[in-house]
Structure prediction request, 1303 residues.
Amino acid sequence: MSPRIPHHLLTLLCLAASLGARGEGLHNQIDVLLAKDWAAAKVRPAAMSSDPEFLRRLHLDLNGVIPTAAETRAFLEDTHPDKRVRLIDQLLGRPEYSLHMARVFDVMLIERRLPAVKSYDVAVAAWRTYLAEAFAANKPWNALVREVLASDGSDELQPAAVKFYVSRDADPHQLTRDVGRVFLGADLQCAQCHDDPRFSDYKQADYFGIYAFLSRMSFHRDAKLNRSFISEKAVGDVSFTSVFTTEQGKTNPRLPGGEMIADPMLEKGKEYVSAPTSTARGVPVYSRRKQLAEQMPRTETPGFARNLGNRLWAMMLGRGLVHPLDLHHAKNPPSHPAVLSALEQWLVEHRCDIKGCLREIALSRCYQLSSELPAGSEPMADAFAVAPLRGLTPEQMRWSLLRASGRLDASFMRAEEQLKKTKPAEVEAKLKDWHWVKENYEALEKATTTLIAAFTPLPGTDDSKIDPVVDHALFLLNNPKLMDLIKAAPGTAFDRWSAFTNPAAMAEDVYLSIFNRLPLADEAAEVVKIVSATKTAKDRAEALQPLVWGLLLSAEFRFNH
Amino acid sequence: MQTSLTRRQAIARLAGAAGTAAFAPSAIATSARRKQLLVLFLSGGASQLETWDPKPGTKFGGPFRAINTSLDGVRIGELLPHTAKIMHRLAVVRSVNSNLPDHEKGHYAIQAGRLAPGYPVLGSAVANLLEQPGDVLPGYITLRRAGPKAYTDTGDAGFLGAKYEGVRVIDGLPPENLMVPAGINAAALQSRDAVRRAADQRFLRSHAKAPINGYSTTFDQARALMQRREIFDLQAESPKDIERYGRHDFGKNCMLARRLLEAGVPCVRVVHFDWDAHQDNFYWHQMRCAEFDRTFVTLLDDLEQRGMLEHTLVVVTGEMGRTPQINNLGGRDHWGRAWSVAMAGCGIKQGIVHGATNDLGTEVKEHEVGIGDLFHTYLTALGIDSSADYDLNGQTNPIADPAAKPIKAVLA
Amino acid sequence: MPINPAKTQLIIEHKNEVPLMSCVFSPNGKHLLAGGRDASIACIDVASGKKIALAGHDSWISEMARTANDLVLTCDYVGHVIAWDCSGDVPKLRWNIEAHPCTIRALAVSADGKSFATGDRDGALRLWHCTDGKLLRELPRSEHPLYGIALHPDGKRIITADRQPKKPTIKVCDLTSGSELLKIEVPELSGYRNVEDIEWGGIRGLTLTPDGALIIACGRGGYDGPASLLLYDTSSGKFQRKLASTMKGFSYTARCHRDGFIMAASGEIAKGEFRAWHRDEDKSLAETATNGPCTCLDIHPDHKRFAITQAIGKSSYPETGVVAFYEWEG
Prediction:
């Protein structure tokens, strides 16, 4: 790859320039700690990523979609030494950042779960709007979690936050497990029936301590309002018996490692704001569930900040420092404990600033390593010494197919033109407004549900468990919906390519659009060979179709690398 | 980083090398006919007391009686009258202690033969271990009803990678998109595939091989399925045969399973749903057992008549058993400490009951068997040396839990 | 003076070795028979309180009913029906038939006491002679498990209730021809969940008011709903009223008192209640909580007393049972 060597050198220069004085910032700390681990384990890290690798990866990780051909060309031609840092900040500032994070955290928090009666669920659009709003404002993680856990669906401003509960049928056991897994990185499920013999650090009392926060709640469906709520009782104690030892325990709400929280003494008959009946939900004066929302999302809570750090790391690096993400325990230690501690520490000091933490990770050398293997070795996945090949998530796959084929941008172009006609004064502001951008994504989302369906795994799975399977291949080979993307249509990439009369220029545009890099000499030659025999744009389109299709089916497109 | 390689790190390393798994040559015994595996998975957890290990008239025995079987002195639950007549062809283990009263964990651990995450489940493992050069059909196909039962598909191929994932056939429908799109000529398709292959070859030169090869394999499997899509067509079967198997989803799936095994798919799993009887256990087991009983016997008869049982191991298991205690809603809850598994076919002794529970059925009384032991047993019955290691790019990892061992008493 | 249903008094409780699920007074009121999770029937002499066990079944007891002439019928999980002659000091087994090949969950005796009907979990519906247990005829089978039967006092109609997923259904049929006269769907008592594709609810008990005007269907108002009774007009099939408890759970049995009120036995995991309603009012007249799920209730032929059965145990696993006798004051 001829442009690679200069890129490579440029990259190092950029990095040196951007990092400034050594030892500053979390990203530096990460790199120093990892370098130490690599040296100790005699692991040879990969080289720095090329510009195209970095550009594509960063777009996928921060905006959920590959860059356009124009963005790619601009970045490759940019000679500014700080261009990587600038790109990071630019992508973190885009409306697409909030929308992408809303999609990622939707899957992380809900895990594609559905309530037993699907129509009782909180609408995805409302929930994603709620999340996008939070990420647009860079709401601290503890504040976001507090809202989610405190919500009973009645809040006029944020009724969607109740989805975490509703999607799990407000089932206290399921929720106890998922609160532990999702927010603390620990799966206490086996401790439900007994002290987990495998993991001495999980105690049955820990499970029931969390359960006691949640055991008084239940699902309430208001048929008249057509909305789902959480109902809660003012009474109900939790006791448990181990199936192994028949040892009995009784517990009040308690976070793992924390103290039991006593219920306040309330005058008899005054326990409720409104008492539960068969038609009305219960609202207690003292809510144990709200105590959980109050007590758990704090950086002081063991595991809370660490779990966030681990999950953000996994988002950017393809696997957690603790892996699987929800199995933090003594026998499954982090692969790089000091790195995890550094992340945790940083999040504690920076009040759970998600955007800031992602920025630091993106700035690290580790994140910016190439996915090309260092000569003669393939480091272990948990060494983080080479960028992994990560299958695109269903959402990334959808938007990237639409972007590569030009459908996404054609659709935005139309919306923008419409705006210019109807509200010319607002154009600039709207383009930066995530609400407007979201509306336009949503329109396209509805039209492409089949596109994502084939790639979406079952309820209960998150994005970390996605692997290409034969169903995906069959879809990519045979589904008419995919065929629609690689046909000529006004304003699409396919039209643009067919219009090129210079085959070399066409080859460049095709590769910049699909792989976000320039074609190699033999790749360009192949395109030239295919199209040189054609005369009309229609002929060219016909000849191009198998080429474009083949590239979209290739591993280089399918993986975030 | 730790200096010694922990189990977790070994898996991580293997995960990095997914898809190019090769088994150590010693792992396979030579055999003229390839062995095959059929798993009938009773999802939700069937009650051992209403099936293989009845305790009629005892405190937790429930309302049903035990009936005599074709095996002298052995009685099973009266809800399985057809099965009772072929007990002499089965091996039943009544002393399973998996200790995992949980769907999700049980689903994985029973099928992977261990608790540690990241390993392939039985179907994926056997698909890999019995793989032969020139195989085109998927090595493992799993049949089930549609339904939001996420835990049914947990685990799967683990570090072996996408190639050995169970291909899911839902509601008996063949995988979607088996037909070439209309209006595309063969030359264009060839050219498309050539472009993809060339691009992957180029990408492969400098990148991790496993994920790229694994992805590439999914296209080979897709092509093979497209060519053999008639396997999925149950219309080819006579109405009489369809009736014999039963017109419910389990019956149809078992018939499809037989067709897939006949077509040469090495591993097939059929999921029979809804054994999770927390309420009305006795009503519900009558319904479930009635479906299972007749279909199971029909399927075994067919496999036998076609000479397939000689090289096919049939395993009947769920992710757990059910509590001896009966709850207030007439249900039995999750229980992993004393339950039963049945086997038939190749490598298995016929007409044997191994192990026993105590009089109330609450604990294993003799020959306790763990999940690792069962896993070893299945592999051994299939002619696989279960003490061998996977060898992935020079990294070895035991195929089965080294702390467990095959149950000699049930192996032929 | 009519009975005030709010004034009940516990007379005596009898413990039983296993959880109890059903009970009935003998026609002469001398005995109470109760059965549940074993094959023996507990028989209590109402006057002396003496309890004996009646042997004959070889499975759990599911349902019981009394005839007009000395007999109590009991049926079980493996399809047997036994007739007990209760005219003497100790009930004697009159006959024992294999009525069905599977669990009988529905049993009813005709108003004239001459015949009885049984329904099983496969939906089979049969009519029998009381005196000798001979089959009178087989009626058209239901496609779904039968959980309740009532025979109309007019002697012409049979009413059945099933456990059809999503819409448990009541059918009123001509007793002679078996033809369907009315079909009432009762989705309110469905506890169907997609996740398991199982109907967890269904109609768990079926009763007619003594005049035959109303059908009372017992069950649970939704998967997680309150113990409920739904009332329908027998002639038109029109919905009349829902009588919902404040307790979540199932209503298992309803009985009508001659003074016009309805008594229902209901249970939830580890608790229960019995409750009285007037058929024309949503609000109940009286309720009494029980320690365990209240599984069945029967009113003594003198209409001054009644008995309930319960399942008793720690948390959700009952190990023993209770029969409790109550009387109304005044």
In short: The CA atoms of residues 140 and 150 of chain C lie 15 Å apart. The mean pLDDT of chain C is 94.
